[in-house]
Amino acid sequence: MTFSLSTEQVPQANTSQSIPYLVVVDATIDNYQSLWASSLLGKEVHILDIETDGIIQIKTLLSQYQGLSCLHLICKGEPGQLELGTTHLSDKNLWEYADEIRQWREYLSDSAEILISGCELAASRVGQAFVSWLGLLSGAAVRVV
Predict the structure, then answer these.
(1) For residues 68-84, b (16+ Cβ closer than 10 Å) or e, as one string?
(2) Is the CB of residue 74 less than 8 Å from the CB of residue 39?
(3) What domains appear along the chain, each with residue ranges and CATH number?
(4) Which of 80, 63, 75 is closest to 117 using CA atoms?
(5) How far apart are CA 145 and CA 143, in angstroms?
(6) Residue of 35 and 141 predicted with greater confidence
(7) What does the pLDDT look like over 56-106, one tens digit per residue?
(8) Nearest CA to 68 among 108, 103, 102?
(9) Cα distance between residue 140 and residue 145, in whole Å
(10) Exposed, middle or buried: residue 114 (CB in 10 Å: 0-12, 13-18, 19+)?
(11) Percent of residues in the chain assigned helix, strand, coil, to nearest 5
């Protein structure tokens, strides 16, 4: 599901558009629709299908863009773990998704940043290591906000 909170055209499949900031929201976030009211206004927003692998969804979504400066993930999670669609990404399975996450580099700018909010991902040493590994794989600066 795609929502454009600006006057820009929503990208169609097989088009490559350059936008600076992309927001991906996991539909399991309580009251995610209320996010539209303020902080996401003017940004391209996509909602993940809760019945599909989230990493694959993100890879497919990113393939429609080029030169993203920021990928903002709003999702649930625990220290050292993210929930994206049906994917529970953690230190235990991160390397199974390494190839898909490395492909994100093709669509991100050289100075891109990945913001992760809505969860306590980095609340432990394992979580902090996970954030570092995610940055290594994606080529982006990863911050939990």
Answers:
(1) bbbbbbbbbbebbbbbb
(2) no
(3) 2-144 (3.40.50)
(4) 75
(5) 6
(6) 141
(7) 999 999 999 999 999 999 999 999 999 999 999 999 999 999 999 999 999
(8) 108
(9) 15
(10) buried
(11) 30, 35, 35
Between CA 45 and CA 98, with CA 111 as vertex, the angle to 5 degrees is 75
Tokens at residue 96, please? 């199974």
Q: Output the 3-class SS for 3-26.
A: EECCCCCCCCCCCCECCCEEEEEE
> Is pLDDT of 10 > 60?
no
Indicate yes or no: pTM above 0.70. Answer: yes
- Whole-angstrom Cα distance, residue 106 to residue 104? 5
- The answer to whether residues 16 and 68 touch, using CB atoms and an 8 Å cutoff, is no
41's CB contacts (< 8 A; 6+ apart) are 5, 6
